[in-house]
Write a sequence for this structure.
């Protein structure tokens, strides 16, 4: 530990010297939580009642050189719902990057994404506790206007350690229209290969230490119409469940993604279809299916609308890419469509300011598969959908009523197969209505009121929710919010929260106190489970 | 813990000596073409850089509010608004239809794996940066109704 401190100290001093010439920047972000016992929900606070997560990053850039470190401190450990291995403190990541002419070389920890991320993505999401950056060497070369090529090798970050496997990858994206000098349609092609090398003690001779995945992509773009397609194949590999290697039968995997859309001023449409079969990838085999997203190598978001309203985030779809013989699941098939348009101003429906409308529909099924439990094999149909997992139809209307008042109305109709998606419970059919009004006063202060209702006969039944937020200025606001599970026959619980936000230039401070509903917290289609809790929260972020 | 405290103090000391500059980062335009952030913001007129996401309600509120007065702002100040989406691949397909469906006249880009977001150390969106003569003159995180009036004051100064 001492070494790390002196390292940071020396680096900071060096940075100070260098800062006279180049430029220095960074940021600090922290989450503090104090947990309390709660008699209403019968929740006992954990033994470490006070917890803090701190992230400090410092970077220096001068001409073609860039270098940086990230220091993380989980005191004494991460918040509830994060990996228990996130505890203590240390230098988490560091890098040196050289960018000159067409070259870009990084040594140390780096983040990258190939294609849509289905074959490889390393990224950081502090709310989810994900930092799966790779420590190694990455080289990028830009082929003038035609495209680029990337190659890397390294080990993945697993909390404060590194994966025992080595990951290597190569990616290229090429503009075919530039290559053949054809300007009417913009045509791009991409190809990636990612390899994981991990020794294993398996008795199965077919299980190789090298497992590769391939992605091929093609996209076409005209002025208004666009489409893209991606196919991913993963070589046969053992599976794992609850830290046990399942290696008698090896399974390969694949993913198909087709997307197309049409957009011109005033209207936009997009549709996506996707089929996944055994396509989850982890940097260590035994990490498969862990609930903290530790060691994920690729990005498989649930493709349904990401709602911003609390009651719409009780039943959230998570992608189903894996095999489970016990639950009779081998993947998913389905799609999503969006339509955005505006009704022009000074028409009957448009009113004085016009009206903006967004429609969204998504529907996801399991793959239709037959299982042979003796041989531990299965066969899945390509296009025939199996059991319904999830459906969401929603509409959102935005309207400015007058110079000072704006409203958003939204209705969501959803079907959620709780048994298949969470392993227990019945299918939930729910309707959610949301109204959001924002009013601006003459003195620059403003008020926001949000009302929500969720209607269902299943699971925890009906909910109502309200948020009242008052902005004293552009930099200071206070809010009160409550989610009330009034339909629940066992316990009608208020999940209330009181809080305030203060922002000044690049600094933001948030304070809140309240009761947290347990459930999935999802960011960008990736979710983690957050247990119910009660207590104080402080969030600080600043950059310099 | 004590050392951590001392280091934090040293760090805060440094804080005063540094001013934020415009970082270089690879982002993509609406058709997926890679460009460098430093190249697209070059202008002798004010440039508003707004970080947003398709799923972020206050971001959309802010960009909707500005879109109503944007033609006037452009006439008066020559301002450009660059709207950079931080959507990842889950929701990125919604950018093009949304922007068109709302008939926004902004220059639209996407920070496809958060390189620019990390360079600016942005914890949450909406996040706005105003650049004048190659210098950052204003930064604000969050949006509430009327925020566009403050922005107008800065760009018209």
């Amino acid at each position: 530990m001492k070494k790390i401190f002196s390292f940071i100290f020396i680096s900071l001093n060096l940075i100070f010297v260098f800062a006279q010439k180049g430029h220095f920047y960074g940021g600090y972000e922290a989450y503090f939580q104090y947990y309390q016992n709660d008699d209403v929900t019968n929740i006992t606070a954990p033994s470490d009642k006070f917890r803090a997560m701190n992230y400090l990053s410092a970077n220096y850039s001068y001409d073609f050189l860039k270098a940086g470190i990230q220091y993380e401190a989980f005191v004494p450990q991460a918040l509830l719902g994060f990996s228990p291995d996130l505890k203590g403190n240390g230098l988490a990541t560091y890098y040196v990057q050289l960018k000159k002419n067409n070259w870009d070389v990084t040594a140390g920890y780096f983040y990258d994404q190939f294609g849509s991320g289905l074959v490889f993505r390393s990224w950081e999401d502090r709310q989810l506790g994900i930092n799966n950056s790779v420590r190694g060497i990455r080289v990028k070369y830009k082929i003038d206007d035609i495209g680029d090529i990337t190659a890397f090798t390294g080990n993945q970050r697993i909390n404060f350690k590194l994966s025992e496997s080595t990951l290597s990858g190569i990616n290229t994206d090429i503009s075919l229209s530039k290559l053949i000098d054809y300007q009417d349609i913009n045509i791009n092609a991409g190809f990636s290969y990612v390899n994981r090398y991990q020794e294993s003690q398996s008795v199965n001779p077919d299980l190789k230490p090298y497992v590769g995945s391939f992605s091929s992509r093609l996209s076409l773009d005209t002025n208004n119409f666009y489409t893209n397609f991606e196919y991913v194949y993963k070589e046969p590999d053992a599976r794992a469940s609850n830290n046990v290697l399942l290696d008698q039968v090896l399974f390969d995997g694949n993913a198909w993604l087709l997307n197309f859309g049409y957009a011109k001023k005033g209207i936009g449409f997009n549709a996506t279809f996707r089929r996944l079969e055994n396509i989850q990838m982890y940097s260590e085999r035994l990490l498969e299916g862990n609930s903290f997203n530790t060691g994920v190598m690729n990005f498989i978001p649930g493709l349904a609308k990401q709602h911003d309203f609390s009651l719409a985030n009780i039943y959230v779809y998570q992608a189903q890419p894996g095999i489970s013989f016990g639950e009779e699941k081998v993947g998913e098939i389905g799609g999503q469509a969006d339509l955005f348009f505006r009704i022009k101003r000074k028409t009957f429906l448009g009113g004085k300011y016009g009206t903006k409308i967004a429609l969204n529909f998504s529907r996801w099924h399991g793959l239709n598969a037959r299982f042979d439990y003796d041989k531990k094999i299965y066969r899945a149909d390509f296009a025939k959908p199996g059991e319904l997992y999830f459906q969401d139809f929603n509409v959102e209307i935005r309207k400015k009523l007058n110079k000072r008042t704006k409203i958003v109305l939204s209705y969501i109709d959803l079907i959620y197969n709780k048994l298949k998606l969470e392993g227990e419970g019945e299918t939930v059919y729910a309707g959610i209505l949301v109204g959001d009004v924002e009013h601006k006063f003459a003195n620059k202060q403003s008020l926001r009121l949000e009302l929500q209702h969720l209607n269902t006969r299943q699971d925890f039944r009906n909910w109502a929710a309200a948020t009242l937020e008052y902005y004293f200025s552009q930099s200071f606001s206070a809010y009160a919010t409550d989610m009330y599970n009034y339909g629940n026959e066992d316990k009608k619980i208020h999940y209330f929260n009181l809080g305030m936000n203060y922002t000044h230039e690049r600094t933001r401070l948030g304070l809140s106190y309240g009761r947290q509903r347990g459930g999935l917290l999802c960011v960008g289609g990736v979710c983690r489970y957050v247990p119910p809790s009660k207590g104080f929260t402080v969030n600080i972020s600043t950059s310099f | 813990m004590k050392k951590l405290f001392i280091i934090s103090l040293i760090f805060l000391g440094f804080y005063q000596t540094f001013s934020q500059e415009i970082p270089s980062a690879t982002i993509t335009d609406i058709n997926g073409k890679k460009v460098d952030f430093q190249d697209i913001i070059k202008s002798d007129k004010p440039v508003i850089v707004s970080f947003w996401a398709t799923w972020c309600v206050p971001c959309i509120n802010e960009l909707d509010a500005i879109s109503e007065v944007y033609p006037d702002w452009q006439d008066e100040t020559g301002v450009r608004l660059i709207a950079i989406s931080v959507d990842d691949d889950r929701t990125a397909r919604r950018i093009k239809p949304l922007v068109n469906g709302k008939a926004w006249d902004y220059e639209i880009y996407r920070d496809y794996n958060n390189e620019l977001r990390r360079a600016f150390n942005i914890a949450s969106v909406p996040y706005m940066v105003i650049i004048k003569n190659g210098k950052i003159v204003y930064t604000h995180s969050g949006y509430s109704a009327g925020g566009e009036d403050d922005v107008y004051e800065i760009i018209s100064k």
